[in-house]
Each structure stands twice: as C-alpha cells, then as structure tokens.
Amino acid sequence: MSIENLYLVRHARSALHGKYCGSIDAPLNAYGKRQANGLRRVFSKKRIDICFVSDLKRTTQTLDAILKNRDCFILKSPNIREIRFGEWEGKNYKTVSRLYKNDYNLWMKKPYLIQFPGGESFSEFYKRVEQFYKFLVEIKSKNVLIVAHGGTIAALKLILLDLPKSQFWSLAPRNAEIFHLKKTRGKKWFQWVN
Asked: Do residues 108 and 93 make contact, with C-beta atoms less than 8 angstroms apart?
C-alpha cells in the first residue's frame, strides 16, 4: 500500500438523524449541510489524490461540499455503504430498543454477533468492507479521502489497525468527524482525530 495519509470522514448529519438509516438514501439536513461546509474548510489546504465515497446521498453530498471548486478523482463504492439494518431502518433508537429488545442489546454489547431482522448480519457487512479494503491496498495514491458511514468507518479502522471486532463501538465516529491515519516509518498506522 502506497497510501501515506488516509482520511476517513463520516457523512454529515442526515434528514434521518436519530433513526437507523442504513440503506435508506436520506439526504443531508440543514445542519448537515453546514457541517459539510465546515469540512470543506478543514480540507481546503490538504492534498487529496483520490476520493472514495458510498453511493448514498448523505455521503455524496458531504463529499461534494468538501470538494467544491476542486478537482479530484472520485470512485463510488456500494461496498462502503452502511450496514443494512432491515426492519430497524427508519425507526428511532428508543423504538428499536423496545420492539427488538434482545437484538438491540446484542447490537450494543456484541455487535459482531448481530443478524438484523430483514437485513444484513455483521459478518456479511464486515466481509463487504474487507472487499473494499483489498481494493484500497492496491491504490498507488499517497493521499486518500474516504467519505462513508459510521459503521463502515469503524469496520475499516478495525481492519487497518488490526483490532478485534469487540472494539467496534470504540471506533464509531460522530457525524462529520475526521479520522486521519498516517503511515509511520515502521509501516504501521498512527491515528488521530481532527
């Protein structure tokens, strides 16, 4: 892998904030648009050679704001979509915790064991993110930006930092949060949050 700077950005706040969005193609809300414009200011002085983005509106709108008036090669990938929450999608967290109590508790305590009713299992989701990672390691660019979803970024960080799946929740970003992973001389990733 020739990447030296890898920027992982969770999309800005969507119109379904506070609900399980998953595969629903929700756009950014007004606050999210302001967050995305703030990201543009952060990235205005950073060199970006290539961008990867999920093919859902909340990520593409975030990336569009970041790259406004800039040229960058962009690849859209469905492999970095959020986990498909199935029957949970469109419902708020409180409702899900009440209607799907056992599954919700498993998701909060051992997310790597979950099979979402009518949706994806964590294992299926993780394999999809691993497929993207295998493609990512072949990239010859030095400065890479990925705009994706909270679960996707947490899973990517598990893979990149070689951490156990039990660390998933500790790696989940907030909306519009940036994680900068930089290669050190020893070829290990060093991480910090902007």
From this structure: no
- What are the helix and strand counts (H, E) for the chain? 6, 6
CB 132 within 8 A of CB 79: yes
pLDDT of 80 higher than 80: yes
The structure tokens 């947490």 sit at 154
Domain 5-193 part of CATH 3.40.50.1240: yes
Of 151, 148, 160, nearest to 10 (Cα)? 148
State the pTM of this model: 0.95
Tokens of 28: 């950014």
Based on the number of CB atoms within 10 Å of its own CB, is 90 exposed (0-12), middle (13-18) or buried (19 or more)?
middle
Question: What is residue 153's predicted lDDT score, i.e. its pLDDT?
Answer: 97
Which amino acid, 21? C
Instruction: State how far the Cα of 3 lies from the Cα of 51, in Å rounded to an integer.
Output: 12
Model confidence at 79, in pLDDT bands (50, 70, 90)? very high
pLDDT digit string (tens) for 45-67? 999 999 999 999 999 999 999 99
User: In terms of DSSP bridges, do strands 189-193 and 178-183 run parallel, antiparallel, or are they unpaired?
Assistant: antiparallel
Distance CA 88, CA 194 (A): 31
The residue written with tokens 């500790």 in the block is 170
